[in-house]
Amino acid sequence: MVEVAKSVFPGDKKIEETLEQVPLSDSTNCRRVEVLSDDTTQQLKNDLSKAEWCALALDESTDIRDMAQLAVYVRFYNDKQFVESLLAIAPLEGQTRGEDNIRSSTRGSPII
Length: 112
Description:
By secondary structure, the chain is an alpha+beta fold. It folds into two domains: 1-50, no CATH class; 53-112, no CATH class. 44% of the residues lie in helices and 26% in strands. It has a three-stranded antiparallel beta sheet, covered by helices on one side. β1 (54-62) and β2 form a beta hairpin. α1 packs antiparallel against α2 (13-20). The longest helix has 25 residues, at 26-50. The two termini are 40 Å apart. The model has no long low-confidence stretch (mean pLDDT 81).
């Protein structure tokens, strides 16, 4: 990263020094991603619990391993603006008809 900063910001020592202080170990980055993920999830749950109405959108797609997955999006108004967010991704087993998608989204998964 420091080498990239040197080429993008030539002669700017402050940026180089700042980037050199950033810890880049695997465990530190993993822990930070987990903390950010948990915080984002908690914020979404809090905002969603305060919303009077919400809408769900289900989208079925196939990943690169040819596994069908169901993406669940939620949209709601939080007293300031409309918010649209990915709520969950759940694997689909068997057929991928509409009724199977609904069954998958409500069968013991943390989606709803």
